[in-house]
Amino acid sequence: MKLTRGADYGTLGILYLARQSPDRIVLISEIAEAEGVPETYLAKIFQDLAKAGLVRSHRGARGGFTLARSPNDITLRQIIEAIEGPVALNRCLDPREGCANSATCPVHTALAKAQQSMLSSLEGVTLYALAQEQAARQGALG
Fold this sequence. Notes:
Distance between the termini: 35 Å
Helix content: 40-55%
Structural class: mainly alpha
Strand content: 5-15%
CATH architecture: Orthogonal Bundle
Radius of gyration: 17 Å
């Protein structure tokens, strides 16, 4: 399994929002410039994040985006799945595809165990923790 560039950009963008004041509405152009990502692509990604209830879109002259929930209540798994869809190590583990041989296939069992471990790890990482780690790393550099 390999995450797309969209997941990378979306994670960078929502992480940027997490570092802002909760009531500050941020333009997509500001996020794109700060993170060095294409604005039009990021705008599409942020629509997926909004549909998933992770960010809130504000329309109008003072429009932009804010987090829809506390960074403590947003996990890395939620961010990735909002952009990529369900995380699956193999198509046989993708709930959209399924597998007719899952009951008898030893590979399916092994991959399912590995996938559950990975999903638990992604679920255990909050946006708040990522923002804190990023701040610590930037502080160590500066």
